[in-house]
Design a protein that fits this description.
Helix 2 crosses helix 3 and helix 3 runs parallel beside helix 4. The longest helix has 21 residues. Helices cover 33% and strands 14% of the residues. The strands form two sheets. A seven-stranded parallel beta sheet has the order 3-2-1-4-5-6-9, sandwiched between helices. It is built from eight helices and nine strands. It is an alpha/beta fold. It has a single domain, classed as NAD(P)-binding Rossmann-like Domain (Rossmann fold). The protein binds 1,4-dihydronicotinamide adenine dinucleotide and D-galactaro-1,5-lactone. The site of 1,4-dihydronicotinamide adenine dinucleotide has 26 residues, from helix 1, helix 3, strand 5 and strand 7.
């Protein structure tokens, strides 16, 4: 690619992908509402609020691919979610439509299905069961990706990320964890595959205890390499596993299922 846009580039995943996705494009355009530091020679920095339609239109101009990580990433007030994740996604898809429909990797979340129990094994065609307003906003994002694919042919990889951190930080994440390297490799494959379409891909490493079936996305050729089992012993030494009646032992979305509707 000539120019790859990463939104949410100042966030936890954005900072990691800023480095790991460097080989994918000659120029990496980085955007966020938070500080992004100085641009390296191969980088362009374009601060932008995703809720600002005109700014997003400019942001996407000239881009050949988009990794959309920006937006609210936890349970929050409806107003914040509305701006970042609802208006933001609408603005992004409209901007992509105006600028040649660059392929999009959309960071969706396991919180679209957080109210499934941990003893259920999911395929991507199963109904959504969001566990909060944040999860609902990701359902909206997935629906926008599907709409723009059906109506206009816009291609998106909808990646339902489990827990993408340096390592799992609790026992639930032994099932949901995805390594940074596996995510970067998945993104690379989404841009390299000749025809992407609009698949839902479970963003999870090859964990022994995973809850999600990725066989429908096998055409991507993505074979995650990491397995959270290597962290189990360390986790067991640091903390006791959750009791059987704890949300982290019942629901796939874990503690998000307990969040109230945030008012401020
Ligand atoms: P993060 O919260 O660290 O990063 C999100 C970034 O988006 C932040 O830098 C924030 O400033 C920016 N942002 C928020 N509202 C914005 C707006 N209105 N306009 C422009 N930028 C805005 O989240 P993280 O962990 O890096 O996640 C990245 C993406 O992946 C998010 O969309 C999140 O929902 C999704 N995800 C992440 C998971 C994880 O395990 N890290 C799991 C599931 C989904
Ligand atoms: C998410 O969607 C969040 O963005 C991330 O911070 C984690 O909480 C993750 O899900 C998870 O479920 O572990």
């Amino acid at each position: 690619m000539h120019r790859l846009l990463i939104t949410g580039a100042a966030g936890g995943l954005g900072r990691v992908m800023r480095e790991k996705l460097r080989p994918l494009a000659e120029i990496i355009r980085l955007s966020d509402i938070a500080d992004l530091g100085d641009a390296a020679p191969h980088e362009e920095i374009m601060p932008c609020d995703l809720g600002d339609e005109a700014a997003v239109l400019k942001l996407v101009e000239g881009c050949d691919g988009i990794v959309h990580l920006g937006g609210v990433s936890v349970e929050q007030t409806f107003d914040k979610i509305l701006n970042g994740n609802i208006k933001g996604v609408y603005n992004l898809y409209e901007a992509a439509r105006a600028h040649g429909m660059p392929r999009i990797v959309f960071a969706s979340s396991n919180h679209t299905i957080g109210f499934y129990r941990q003893d259920e094994y999911l395929t991507p065609d199963m109904p959504m069961k969001p566990d909060g307003l944040y999860g609902v906003s990701k359902c909206f994002g997935e629906a926008m990706a599907s709409l723009y694919h059906s109506k206009f042919g816009q291609e998106t990889a909808i990646v339902r990320i489990g827990s993408c951190f340096a390592e799992p930080v609790n026992h639930r994440m032994l099932s949901t964890w995805m390594s940074h390297d596996d995510f970067a490799d998945l993104i690379r494959r989404c841009f390299l595959v000749p025809r992407l379409g609009c698949p839902i891909v479970w963003g999870v490493s090859d964990n022994d205890g995973k809850w999600w079936d990725n066989s429908a996305a096998s055409f991507l050729g993505w074979k995650p390499k990491a397995n959270s089992e290597s962290f189990r012993e360390g986790l067991d030494a640091r903390m006791t596993p959750p009791a059987a009646d704890h949300p982290n032992a019942i629901w796939q979305g874990g503690m998000f299922t307990l969040d109230p509707i945030h008012k401020d």
